[in-house]
Each structure stands twice: as structure tokens, then as C-alpha cells.
Amino acid sequence: MKKNILATSIIEAMVVLLIVLIAVTGAYDMFSNAIRITDGSEHKLMAISMAKEGIEAVTNIRDTNWKVLPWDYKNCWNVLNYEIDCFNDSSTNFDIPDWSSFTVWKDTWDYRWKLTQTWSVLLYSDPDYRAAFQVWFDNNWFYTQSWSLIATAIKPVFTREIQIKYLEDNIDSWTFSASEEQKMQVKSIVQWSDSSSTNIRKVEMETILTNWKNKVE
Fold first, then answer.
1. Which of 34, 63, 105, 133 is least enclosed, having the fewest CB within 10 Å?
2. Contact status, residue 45 vs residue 35, Cβ threshold 8 Å
3. Residues 63-78 pLDDT 10s
4. pLDDT in tens, 102-134
5. Is the residue at 187 inside a domain?
6. Nearest-5° angle of CA 185, CA 188, CA 194?
7. CB 112, CB 64: distance < 8 Å
8. Which of 118, 195, 197, 209 is nearest to 159 (CA)?
């Protein structure tokens, strides 16, 4: 009789233990999923902020060109990094290059946004791409893509690629840069990977900037 009672108690204990294990496993899975969802949401918000900043930075570059080079709106509105030799120069020698990719960063010396041309022939999955377009925190915890301003890398790895292409004035088709072109398409592409998905995640924003201040007929 005592053996039957002991056997029954052992079986009951095993059943209780099994129930507890199932409950703990379920709670752990729920907790892990919650963390993945939270991380995914947080990283997406960061990516949206980075992509938006990229668009705003290029817009600011155009506006700053207008401000610091007001004597020639036609040829200097799209000059790369505020090159003053653009004045009365109808060539594309000083323009932001057409059909190109860039990193964008703020110079701590003059507090102006700058572009650095970066070749984009690879995919995010390639380490060379991630190294070329990686986003970092600077010493003030702002996003930066300047190696000289790096304080720490943002993890997981984010990249931001700025793509610039010129539009012809009269038709909606792409062409190679000419000084008469007065509008450009700007794309800000942020990519990253995290535990919320096995796929590479991406946020892309786009705008068209025009030289509406051009006073030269």
C-alpha cells in the first residue's frame, strides 16, 4: 500500500513538474518574442530618424550653398562641399557628382553638412559595404559617418547610403549631369539587421530638390 502511495506521489510530482516546465517555457518564449519585437521597433525608429536626417542634410547643403554662394545661383546651388570656384563655371567640375552614392556628416569645424563620395557596388550583406556606409555615434551622441568623429558604433550595424541623381528640367527621365540641370533626386537608404527578423531590414526615403532660387535666365 505504501509503495502504491509513493508511486502515485512520484507520478503527481512529475506531472506538476511537467506543467511548471511547460509554463516556464511558454513564458520564456513570450518574453523572448517581446524582446525581439521591442528591439525591432526601436531599431526601426532609429533607422527612420537616420534616413530623415540624410534627406534633411542634403537639403541643408543646397540651402547653405544658396547662402554662402549667392552670386551665382545657377552654377553654385549644387556645388560639392561649398567649393567657391563654382562662380561663373558652367562645367560640372565642382558639382555634386551625378549617379553617385555618398556618406553624409557634419563638420565640427564649421558646423556644415558635408558629403563624401563612396562607391556602392556591393550589398549590405557584404562586410565592405557595411564598413563603407556604417553609421556611428560621435562624442555628443549624434549620428555620424565621419571616421574622425567616431565615439562608438551603433549596434546592430546600421548603414546609410545617400544616392543622388539629376533630373532634366523638361522631362522626367535620368541623364548625366549638366550645369543647366536644376533639380536632383535624393534617396536616403538605411539598412540594418537585428534579432526581430532573419531578413535584412531597410528604410528608404526620397525627395526631389530644385534650384528654385535660380535667377539666371
1. 34
2. no
3. 999 999 998 999 999 9
4. 999 999 889 999 999 998 888 998 999 999 999
5. yes
6. 155
7. yes
8. 118
pTM value?
A: 0.78
Domain of residue 169 covers 2-210
Q: Count of domains in the chain?
A: 1
Query: SS in 3 state form for 72-138?
Result: CHHHHCCEHHHCHHHCCCCCCCCECCCCEEEEEEECCCCCCEEEEECCCCCCCCCHHHHHHHECEEC
Classify residue 59: in a domain, yes or no.
Answer: yes
Question: Would residue 216 count as lying in a domain?
Answer: no
In sequence order, what are the residues at sequence separation of 6 or more whose Cβ sits closer than 8 angstroms to the Cβ of residue 85?
Answer: 93, 94
Asked if the structure places residue 215 within a domain, the reply is no
CA distance 64 to 62: 5
C-alpha cell at 4: 502504491
